[in-house]
User: Fold this.
Amino acid sequence: MADRGTAPSTIVITGASSGLGAALAVAYAAPGVTLGLVARNEARLAATRDACRANGATVEVGVFDVADAAPLGDWLRGFDAQTPIDLVIANAGVSAGPPPGAAAEGLALATRQVQTNLLGTMNTIEPLLPVLAARRRGHLAVVASLAGYRGLAYSPAYSASKAGVRAYGEALRALLAPRGVAVSVVCPGFFSSPMTDRFIGAHPFRLSLDQATRIVKRGLDRGKRRIVFPWPLALGLRCADLMPAALGDLIIRNVHFHIEPP
Assistant:
């Protein structure tokens, strides 16, 4: 990682076609900055690329599904060989949940979320670990969720995948610190985005996309190990996890929502 207070000059962001990923890309875009942007949707990714170039950044794009490890890994290693990476933001994610009144979301939807959210994060990070450790610098950021603190009754697979991302990032931070590589674990709650807009129901302490982007970027720029927000919702979920299971289940079960298909 660059010294704290020194802005990263080469940044890779997955899930960069919309939401937080696109907003962070535009926020970091500036003359002298090289961005590697990854997403599945070519048209939306091109729009993010153009916005970043308008801000003066040099931009390369990779149209990949992060669940497809081999081509993504090849692209990441090639990008790093040309322009050594300072910061990786593993942000790509999908969400789903049971239809209203249903007891399950189905194996296909459940496994897709784990493949994208958890394995996609690993597919983004693992190819770069040897080179970052060898250089003894670099900064990795994994975007988990407050759902990773206490599984939400109406998005079980999403909660499981994000709990895995959170644990993976926490473990990597302890492992990589002696090798000079920093790791930030980002756990946001609700904020305005195409994903959140598909959550039909209560959005407690919901923030705007601009607010969420500022919080994440400020935390990354300061080298924070954990970026967790909003704190009232984080505290509530942590407390629900520490309560007796029956009481925690009752609270979580009364947070009603359903997630519309993408």
